[in-house]
Specification:
By secondary structure, the chain is mainly alpha-helical. It has 3 domains: 11-183; 215-329, no CATH class; 334-506, Ribonuclease Inhibitor (Leucine-rich repeat, LRR (right-handed beta-alpha superhelix), Alpha-Beta Horseshoe). It is 47% helix and 6% strand. The strands form 2 sheets. An 8-stranded mixed β-sheet has the order 1-4-5-6-7-8-9-10, with no helix packed on it. It starts with a helix and ends with a strand. The protein binds heme C. Heme C (HEC) binds next to helix 12.
Amino acid sequence: MTTETDQKKCGSSCLRPLAITIFGLLIISILIAMPFLVGEPNAEKIPDIVRFFGRFHPVVLHLPIGIFSLIMIQELLAMFTRYKPQPTIIPIFIGAASAVVAVLFGFFLYIGGGYEMGELLQDHLWGGIFFASAAVLTLIVKSWLLPLKFSTVLYRAMIFGSVGIMSYASHDGASITHGKDYLFEYAPDSLRKIQGYEPKNVKVGAPVKPLEEQIVYEDMVQPILNKRCVECHKESKSKGKFRMDSYELLVKGGNEGDGIVPGKALDSNIVYRCELPEVDDEHMPPESKTDIEDHELAVIKWWIDSGADPVKTVAQLDLTEEIRAAISKLDLSVDLVAGKSGSATPLADLPSDELLKAVSALAKDFPGGLTFESQVSSRLTFTAISLRNNLDDQLFSKLKSVIPSMVAMDLSSTAITDDSVKLLATAKDLRVLRLSETKISDAALDTLASLKNLEAINLYGTRVTDAGVEKLKSLTHLKRLYLWQTDVSEGMITKLKEALPELEIITGV
Ligand code: HEC
């Protein structure tokens, strides 16, 4: 029954919801039209004052997040307890208004440019606009429902919906500022698995390519520089103001100008410095460090002379026999690790939780050293490249529990001895092993002779002799043996080749 007074009441009290509705819809239309009207981000066209306000986006955005979370908690309490929220429009009004301001500032930040993550940025922009629009619509609904003094299903649905969109938009926003993996970086591995992340601290090896497809810079040149030069030419320690840890910095050079001159190896400072006589003060690497090997320098020179392209593959450059030999000495052994030799089929074979735990626990002692062979493999590879001389028998013994899972290990230039090699007896799947420039002796080869799956062994620069190497005759899968700079005789090499016709022995001559 509608009385005259009721009608009168609506007459005046309907004015406010009506105003909110018209104004609210206008704002929503403007928000949605904004990206279409303004177009692509362009720092040069945008006045400083707009960019100034843009910087306030990260400050303002916390207000709507806080208010909407609070309103949602209130509504949940109202649903499940006897609690009754005050019938007021003020919080939702401030929430919606601050959401609009946050989105406006965010848009200012966006058109000022400087962000690269294209798709994520677009998602976040639209997430923000939809959230602010949902917030304003919720305000409109609330303004009409206010006289009811209780929450309706529609209003609650709109609050929960708004919070949902808000979470989505703010997660994208956080990913833009902190990086995509931010939220789950330290999550338990089980949660990370659900989200599609790899287990913590466990890097997964890149798929391995045949020689022709390898990128000369990335797969050969930079690894050589990492091994020989980067320790003194990196961000935290850039001798001669010269960093060698990325292509751009390599080209840029240091105090003395360009590091490399594409097409001209001999004019390139990195080559010039390495080719100076060792007694010269300017010779690189400095006297105290192991000198760069001739074959390593040969590969670098070949790459520079061929134009120093950062992405070209071996197949795209002219490969001479000499360079092929030099590359083979780099001992990439990757084709073997990849199981290309046919002895191992990379079946999906996921690591056990126990192994994952063990590998994570070891990550602290061996940063970046342990890697699963592939995303679906329980087999491990190990490299001591970042430890080198710091890896001794004692530290090595910590790896004991994961050794049975190893398929490839690079222990070259470390301080390990025959004692560590003894621990390898359990590495029954080991296919690639580098022991070059270590203190191992013939005694170590007894252990190796029992690892029947070995396909490549690098013993260059060790004290092994004929007596030791002869034991390797029993390794019928062996395809490559690196023996240069050892005392192994020509006679023994011939003998080995007779016993294992498929074996390639690299002696450096
Ligand atoms: C043990 C530390 C150390 C290592 C390792 C090292 N360098 Fe250096 N490098 C220096 C120091 C110190 C200087 C500055 C003094 C000088 O110019 O001789 C320098 C300067 C240079 C410069 C001159 C940069 C400029 O523009 O002034 C080049 C080029 C260079 N190094 C190349 C190399 C290469 C190539 C390697 C690896 C094969 C290497 N360095 C390894 C310490 C090192």
